[in-house]
User: What shape does this take?
Amino acid sequence: MDNFSIAIHGGAGTLVKGTMTPDKEIAYKSTLQKALDTAYDCLAQGGSSVDAVEKAVVFLENSTLFNAGKGSVFTAEGTHEMDAAIMEGATLHAGGVSLITGIKNPICLARDIMEKSEHVFLAGKGAMDFAISLGYTLKDASYFYDALRYEQWQQIKGTDSFQLDHSTKKNHKFGTVGAVAKDRNGTISAATSTGGMTNKKFGRIGDSSMIGSGTYANNKTCAVSCTGSGEFFIRGVTAYDVSCLMEYKNYSLQEATDEVILKRMVNLGGDGGLIAIDANGTIAMPFNTEGMYRGFKTSSGQEATAIYKD
Ligand code: ASP
Assistant: This one.
């Protein structure tokens, strides 16, 4: 089957319809569309699914509209600590990175960890030393600055609370980005990148960079990228849970993702959603929040971007 497809998300949350201006909605959708087109072109030219998910995520990391790379949320100390992960479903090779700052595209570092280190998961200073050893240059904090993210932080700075950048309160902005793809060779991959939660401290790490929680890919089952309240996705081992339902219980992609997001995650008390693709290129994008920035494009000519429930 040499069909190919790409799906992406820009975060799930309780965005209230009507709080967004038409201009902003157009900006979000056109950024999603450009990320899809970039990844789709890569797949059409024979690129691998790892290349495609990396390209889509880089595109979204470079936009301040999303909470990843440029435009990441602020920590309690007023810094940016970013997490990312990537996984390839044919070999189960994976790379994850956490608590990094100054790296323009965390997803590229996650891929370098997967391909150029002996390890799967690096964090903090060590991860940055590894990046520098590969020739990465560090961006100044001003590169990551976004006025709205700063304002979100100001509202809870000095308190013990931390929040998703797409909380129900005040700014209804979504954030974390992710992609899943199937290439012409039948390999599926997943990638996720995030700035995490506003006002986070104590080295808090969410699900995005954790293989099996926020990101997972296995050609036998599916590739998954999650977004939402990370603590719940870690406890639910959510991305791997979808894969397990398919592998051990023969669920279809849609059945498995609905079970995990619309039932198990709700029972656990977590908010969010995921995008997933199976080895046939079938896509599922369930979420239990009011909306999720999302889009997909397939070689059979189907494509769409959306924010709210249909
Ligand atoms: N899951 C991410 C985290 O907990 C946040 C998000 O998806 O917006 O770090």
Notes: The chain has one domain: 5-308. Residues 11, 67, 164, 175-176, 194, 196-197, 206-208, 214, 227-228, 230 surround aspartic acid (CB under 6 Å). Residues 167-173 have pLDDT under 50 and may be disordered. The longest strand covers residues 5-13.
